[in-house]
Amino acid sequence: MKQRELVVLAAALALVVMNVPSSATTIRVPLDQPTIQAGIDAANEGDIVLVAADTYTGVDNRNLDFGGTNMTVMSEAGPDETIIDCEGLDVAFHLHSNEDSTSVILGFTITNGSGDNGGGMRIFCAAATIEDCIFSNNTAVWNGGGLYYGYAPTAGVIRNCVFYGNSAPCRGGGISCSHCDGENVPPIITGCVFYDNDAGSGGDLGGGAVFCNSSSPVISGCTIAGNAGGPGAGGIHGHWCYSVVTRTIIAFSTEGVGIVGADADHCVIFGNAGGDRLSGMTLENLYIDPLFCDMAAWDLTLCSDSPCLPEALENPWGELVGAYESGCGSPVEASSWGSIKAMYRCPQ
Q1: Tens digit of pLDDT for each residue in 165-194?
Q2: How remote is the C-alpha of 224 from its chain's centroid?
Q3: Would you state the pLDDT for residue 105?
């Protein structure tokens, strides 16, 4: 695990501990209960289900259901060491009983999930705080390869998560947010990374990283790179809504434009196969290479002279754009579309 991820996880753990009621019980899996679902079933409102490092498979370690009880389900050692492998048979978590954002899912890798709406996780008629999770190689039949989030009655948060290798033939390779306007509430998506996700291959609207349908989440401080969006956007696609996108990198979509149907401000938008156009309100954005360290290895930290860094001369806002800070030196050569496809490196 990268040092940044360790620091973030430690901070998240500390925050959870500070916000846990004094009467809360910690239930350890597998010490106190043999499976994750057994731990959830034993929990009361506000309790913590603490999951030891391991790879979890089987019926009682997928399609995990809080049953309307708000609790924290968290890993003890972080997502690199705590893996829920759905084996292509179901989603990892399914919250659907009016849970709110005090339901926390923290520090898991969710992989090989499969579902109709939501391949890795489905939040439907509920809300949650989803933090420091990795969604990898999950597949939806329809929408939301990594995560489907819809009809939430209260606000939720998706924070510091990584989505890669997820797919949906219709909408939202990484995340699909649906019908969270009006009497429902869209989530906040912040500090997340999306790469190599795919949507829209079935000829629908796309949204390789994020698709928003009648839902206007606030998206901030994210890095979105190398996603495919079919006939729509490889990055963010809004339909019957306008999400607010700030301090986010949207770059190098392999299929589709960068962003559609969203209001973008203080973003870096560059090198998207279908163009970098914006159909929402364009405020102050840069259309220059973000200078990632190593696209070939999906290292999306920034070169030391990236315009996304707060101290960069090209950065007029003095604030970090994207989820990651500097991780290497200067690039070997300037980018072109041909060199992007060749996935250049910059020295370590």
Answers
A1: 999 999 999 999 986 555 678 889 999 999
A2: 10
A3: 98
Residue pair 80/111 in contact by the 8 Å Cβ criterion:
no
Q: Tens digit of pLDDT for each residue in 15-65?
A: 554 555 567 999 999 999 999 999 999 999 999 999 999 999 999 999 999
Quick one: pLDDT at residue 15?
A: 52
Classify the phi-psi angles of 322: left when phi > 0, otherwise alpha if psi is within -120 to 50, otherwise beta: left
Domains of the chain: 3-287 (2.160.20.10)
Give the global pTM. 0.89
**Please, are residues 168 and 148 in contact by the beta-carbon 8 Å criterion?**
no
In this prediction, residue 268 has a pLDDT band, given cuts at 50, 70 and 90, of very high
